[in-house]
Amino acid sequence: MNQEELPKVYNPKDFEDKWYQFWQDQGYFHAKADPQKTPYTIVIPPPNVTAQLHMGHGLNDTIQDILIRWKRMCGDNVLWMPGTDHAGIATQNVVEKKLHREGKSRHDFSREDFIHKVWEWKEEYGSIIIDQIKKMGCSCDWERERFTMDEGLSKAVREVFVRFYEDGLIYKGKYIVNWCPRCGTALSSEEVDHEDINGFFYHIKYPVKGENRYIEIATTRPETMLGDTAVAVNPEDERYKDLIGKTLILPLVNREIPLVADDYTRMDFGTGAVKVTPAHDPNDFLIGKRHDLPQINVMNPDGTMNHEAGESYEGLDRFACRDKVIDDLAKAGLFIKKEGHHHSVGHCYRCNTIIEPYLSDQWFVSMKPLAKGAIQVVKNGKVTFHPDRWKKVYLHWMDNIEDWCISRQIWWGHRIPVWNCLDCGQIMVLRDDPDHCTECKSSRIQQDKDVLDTWFSSMLWPFSTLGWPKESDDLKYFYPTSVLSTAPEIIFFWVARMIMGGLHFMDGEVPFHTVYIHALVRDEQGRKMSKSKGNIIDPLELIDKYGADSLRFTLAAMAAQGRDIKLAEGRVEGYRNFVTKLWNAARFCQMNECLPVDGFDPKSCQLTLNRWIVSKASETAGRVAAALDAYKFNEAAGALYQFTWGTFCDWYVEFTKPILYGEDDAAKAETRAAAAWALDRILILLHPFTPFVTEELWGKTAARSGMLIREPWFAADDSLNAPGAEQEMDWVVRLISEIRSVRAEMNVPPGAKFRAFFKDANDVTKARIEAHAGLVLQLARIEGFEETQEVAAGSVQAVVDEAAFILPLSGVIDVAAEKARLEKEIAKLDGEIAKHDRKLANEKFTAKAPPAVVETERERRGESKGRSKGRAMTRAHRGSVSA
Questions:
Q1: With pLDDT > 90 as the criterion, what percentage of the chain qualifies?
Q2: Mean pLDDT of the region 512-520
Q3: Which end of the chain is more exposed for a tag (fewer CB within 10 A), N or C?
Q4: Residue-wise pLDDT tens digits, 825-877
């Protein structure tokens, strides 16, 4: 591309969309199987088709794109597989709400017509999340984009269901499920959000038949007592031993129920006696199985009471029924008391409705046989977690895994491929839709009305997207995938199930070798972002304001393993300043004709300054690659920030000015070539993090034969190391920094200049002073240096290695006043530190305060400690203030 002059102002809107469209049009994101190259594959966690880009997406998409662009530049054959999830319950809810605004419901349509409306909605709005992901700069292979209900994936889903069924792993049974009365469907345990609420224990008398005695039970859900079929006590409980086997009278219903002994019952909880409602509680269901108790369902699917609840309660909402039951018990003299009880209650993860444990016919996958292999591959390291602590979380869940309820009572989704013959009762589980019964040939057949849990199709994502069940070339080449980057809350929803699915259907091969669990993005106070709190930070608004590169670099820089991100807009603004700094440094190079030189060998540099920047560039490349290999994105970003802003922009650019503005043509030529070479290395190393600005600068700072996105990665090279040059120039940087710090902390006026002195310097330091005096005098604002053995009154010392640099400030500032000010500041900061220490030592505070609040207290303590240390260094270590 032809070289163009860079605008004075960095404006990402001028080129971000342009470059993304260009990359996509040129096919730079597309991958083809090539046996001559090493494959590197990531499957994107498919966002819900209903979703809008949130900061969690922004973080995870950034992490994946950094890995993808890095590996692409390293020469791997990279595939980033994109797509979206049909999100059964969420999408159906969106369309039903749309119909509700029109005065209609889905029941006003046939099932087929409603599904057609959902597809219409998907075609109109389903690409919004994809367009937003593109705004982040994500280099997905959009030519391969998949949808969990496209034809190929639907065929894979059917194949898996049939194979599971044939292997005896899928069954249908009457079990207690998590039921959402609002959504009208079963939910898996992982789709239930547990919230602590202030509820009540209701104490009720259950009379003993034929005796003037009663059993006292306590329940949080008195409305379910209408379906009680027993009361249970622990067989070792002396209070009830003489009553075991006797008959009780169920209040209000007057049904006779037994008092049974069961080890599940805890003697030390409540009254030690529990009501048993097998149709409305999972533990009661198991007790009922052990004692052969009836199962009486007293509720309708919408949470209202049915005829089994009795005429007085039929049709009431479950919570209205609760109130009436307590009122009626009180009238009957059977209600004892109500007491407060703080407990955890399940809520639907979609609509936040309180979940009802509910007995119903559902389809299940038997998970324990599948879990065995999935546990083993994590224990033996075939699949690794980063951070490693998530391995324990995964294994704990897998060791305690329950069967998976895969049926959902909605219309949008993969219909369960089971047909029933209405004539002979034959059950058919088939890959293709039948038109008649396989047993009696009757055409009177009916497909199961339920659809599969959305996560059933997501379980197959790593291999179904590559063509499975066909043995495609892509599947053979790109599977198993390399890395999965995802959020902690879907380790159980998705990660574990993909591992189980991959092992079962891909000949024992895991779907990926590495799982990276990214942090959660919270607000600046450490709170979870939510609409109700009004603290949501919209990534699209930040992109519009600061550019995608600034947001990406912010997220990467804050993505420390095992620590949530506290994000504030000011952080993004700060990293926009970083990108602007790079832009201005590139302009400086361009204006000073620092252009890449064909055949330039950085090892040939003669000037210490240039050998320093070359060596630092190689060192940085090594640090970045090592950090990315370890999935420490914040360390990689930190190394780049330090080298780009600190070493190159702040110091190297300033150090080159005397050369570039001087008369030594040979020194100019070498410095121009070295500066251009170093800038190019920065653009290469930064590209995976900030792809847009680096591509723009690549094209405008020199005439290029190709695009930066296809440029080879710059790897660390030991032959470029120049430890002597690094030590020398780092010394110069430290000396200038120390003098500047003393001036700032002692309130020396910026324009004040004075001669400085040094003492106790060895020969190496003296040689460095002589060689670099010009830089130090100019950048530290010093008039000159002299060696001395005395420290004059009113001086401040800056110590660098063995030498003391003495700044005579008498007459420049009031030394005594400044010394007093420092003492006062240190005392104030020490007081703040003590205050933080007292708070952190308070066990009540650390135990009861939210973790984010405790962490904020520790951070504030650290900030105060750092400021106090800095003031103390000025007072003591940096140089005794001599008055």
A1: 76
A2: 96
A3: N
A4: 778 878 887 888 888 778 777 777 766 677 777 777 777 776 666 555 554 43
pTM of the model as a whole: 0.86
Which pair of tokens denotes residue 450? 């339920």
Give the pLDDT confidence score for residue 311 in this predicted structure.
93
Of 406-410, 415-419, 623-627, where does mean pLDDT reach its minimum?
A: 406-410
β-bridge mates for residue 816, sequence order: none
Cβ atoms within 10 Å, residue 524: 15
The β-bridge relationship of strands 170-180 and 185-187 is antiparallel
Distance CA 239, CA 819 (A): 77
331 Cβ partners below 8 Å, 6+ apart? Answer: none
796 pairs with which residues across the strands?
807
Q: Would you state the torsion angle of the CA atoms of residues 209, 215, 219, 222, taken in this order, to the nearest 10 degrees?
A: 30
**DSSP code string of 542-556:** HHHHH-HHHHHHHHH
Cα distance between residue 654 and residue 631, in whole Å: 34
**Measured distance CA(58)–CA(485) in Å, rounded:** 12
Which residue type does 15 have?
F
Q: Any idea what the Cα angle at residue 105 is, between residues 100 and 109, rounded to 5°?
A: 140
| Sole residue written with tokens 């800056």 | 798
Task: Identify whether the C-beta of residue 64 lies closer than 8 Å to the C-beta of residue 78.
Answer: no
**DSSP bridge pairs for 195:** 345
Look at residue 461 and tell me whether its pLDDT is greater than 70: yes
Q: Torsions phi, psi of 266, nearest 5?
A: -90, 125
> For residues 426 and 439, is the Cβ–Cβ distance under 8 A?
yes
* pLDDT tens digits, one per residue of 305-352: 999 999 999 999 999 999 999 999 999 999 999 998 888 889 987 788
Q: Note the Cα 225 to chain centre separation in Å.
A: 43
Determine whether 644 is exposed, middle or buried from the number of CB atoms within 10 Å of its CB (0-12, 13-18, 19+). Answer: buried
27: exposed, middle or buried (Cβ count in 10 Å: 0-12, 13-18, 19+): exposed
pLDDT of residue 19: 98
What is the distance between the alpha carbons of residues 22 and 26, in angstroms, rounded to a whole number? Answer: 6
Helix (H) or strand (E) holding 486: strand 481-486
